């Protein structure tokens, strides 16, 4: 079951790492309302990750738990795509990253409602609704910042350029993902491109933004090859558990 | 207040907890426009499944009674206890009305 386990871990890692990234805004958001909105989104993603980690641990069948999956794997064992580990940057970058991720995950979870796997179908029903809200919330901000002041428009354009190299990896399936896709357990990642383009083009049109063309696409996350940012995330996220194994509160 | 946050005016938030109940004022928030105000109301005031419907109203659209006129506005009703339904005796046969 290693193949299926890795395919599930890819999804879990995407959600945990982005959930952790967004949680870094807690206490630092530009306004109180966003200081609640961003942890809300963060908890949606961490909740999804928890269910998937528990499933991955169950598949491994060595008595492991969701915590072992999150806290005791090293950087090279993390299989998240590079987009989700990108630094928060400014508020514009964070909202665009959230829009890109949710615009992929919403149709992905919708398609996963037809999975042959009970756990995947269960996660999909809940996560599809959450991702629909993330598209709405992040999208509204992208529209207002892109079509806002000179300063906000400049920051939004910079975010589009900065995140462009990390879009294509969303639509690429690793060997593990392909096996799960062939078995009807997970949707085919490349099939989400049309829905993603439609969402982004609609929002960019209202935001007076142009999609970035001709960029060099980065990849490697699914093979455990990450940017320097992931190591820092794991250092923060795992340090308590490594210093005090099994710590609870 | 309005000068401090010219781009994010104040909104009053009303939540309906269940079908059949009225929207109830729960608090206020800052947001740039009505769409973002609804999102913010959802994120700030319905995190524990409090609502099935949300209204947001610009705070400056609300006309409030003047506290300086409280005496003439409210006190004349104080001695009109016959307006309370408890003033009447209801026969047991009527049951709940």
Any chance you could write out the topology, listing elements then pairs?
The complex is a heterodimer of chains A (249) and B (97).
Chain A: H1 2-23, H2 32-60, H3 66-71, H4 91-112, H5 118-146, H6 150-163, H7 175-182, H8 193-207, H9 228-243
Helix pairs in contact in A: 1-2, 1-7, 2-5, 4-5, 4-6, 4-8, 5-6, 5-8
Chain B: E1 10-16, E2 24-30, H1 34-45, E3 53-58, H2 70-74
Radius of gyration of chain A: 18 Å
Can you identify the CATH class of chain A? Mainly Alpha
CATH superfamily of chain A: Ferritin, core subunit, four-helix bundle
Instruction: State mean pLDDT of chain B (0 to 100 scale).
Output: 89
**Unreliable stretches covering 5 or more consecutive residues of chain B:** none
CATH fold-level label of chain A? Ferritin
Helix content of chain A: 55-70%
Quaternary assembly:
heterodimer
Shape of chain A: globular
Major sheet attributes of chain A: none
Largest chain-chain contact?
Answer: A-B, 10 and 12 residues
Calculate Rg of chain B over CA atoms: 20 Å
pLDDT averaged residue by residue of chain A: 96
Indicate the structural class of chain B: alpha+beta
List the keywords.
heterodimer; A: 249 residues; mainly alpha; Ferritin; B: alpha+beta; 18% helix
Question: What this model shows, in words?
Answer:
With 249 residues, chain A is mostly helical. Chain A has 9 helices and no strands. Chain A has helices spanning 2-23, 32-60, 66-71, 91-112, 118-146, 150-163, 175-182, 193-207, 228-243. Chain A is globular and about 55 Å long. The model of chain A has no long low-confidence stretch (mean pLDDT 96). By secondary structure, chain B is of the alpha+beta class. Chain B is 18% helix and 21% strand. Chain B has helices spanning 34-45, 70-74; strands at residues 10-16, 24-30, 53-58. In chain B, strands 2-1-3 form a 3-stranded antiparallel β-sheet, covered by helices on one side. The interface between A and B is small, with 10 and 12 residues.
């Amino acid at each position: 079951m290693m193949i299926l386990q890795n395919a599930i871990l890819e999804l879990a890692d995407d959600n945990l790492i982005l959930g952790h990234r967004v949680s870094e805004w807690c206490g630092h958001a530009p306004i109180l309302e966003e200081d609640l909105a961003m942890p809300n989104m963060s908890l949606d993603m961490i909740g999804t990750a928890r269910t998937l980690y528990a499933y991955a641990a169950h598949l491994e069948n060595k008595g492991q738990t969701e915590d072992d999956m999150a806290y005791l794997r090293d950087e090279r064992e993390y299989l998240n795509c590079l987009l989700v580990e990108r630094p928060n940057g400014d508020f514009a970058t964070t909202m665009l990253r959230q829009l890109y991720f949710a615009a992929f995950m919403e149709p992905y979870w919708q398609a996963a409602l037809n999975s042959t796997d009970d756990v995947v179908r269960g996660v999909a029903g809940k996560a599809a609704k959450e991702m629909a809200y993330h598209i709405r919330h992040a999208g509204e901000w992208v529209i207002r910042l892109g079509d806002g002041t000179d300063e906000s428009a400049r920051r939004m354009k910079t975010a589009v350029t900065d995140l462009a190299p990390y879009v294509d990896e969303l639509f690429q399936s690793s060997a593990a993902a392909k096996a799960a896709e062939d078995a009807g357990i997970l949707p085919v990642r490349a099939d989400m491109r049309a829905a993603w383009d439609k969402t982004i083009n609609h929002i960019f049109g209202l935001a007076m933004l142009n999609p970035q063309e001709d960029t060099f696409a980065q990849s490697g996350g699914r093979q455990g090859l990450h940017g320097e940012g992931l190591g820092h995330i794991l250092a923060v996220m795992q340090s308590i558990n490594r210093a005090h194994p099994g710590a609870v509160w | 207040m309005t000068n401090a946050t010219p781009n994010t005016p104040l909104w009053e938030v009303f939540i309906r907890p269940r079908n059949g109940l009225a929207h109830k004022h729960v608090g206020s928030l800052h947001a740039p426009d009505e769409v973002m105000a609804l999102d913010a109301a959802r994120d700030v005031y319905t995190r524990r499944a409090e609502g099935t419907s949300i209204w947001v109203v610009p705070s400056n659209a609300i006309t409030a009674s003047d506290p300086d006129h409280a005496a003439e506005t409210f006190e004349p009703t104080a001695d009109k206890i016959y307006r309370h339904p408890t003033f009447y005796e209801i026969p047991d046969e009527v049951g709940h009305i």
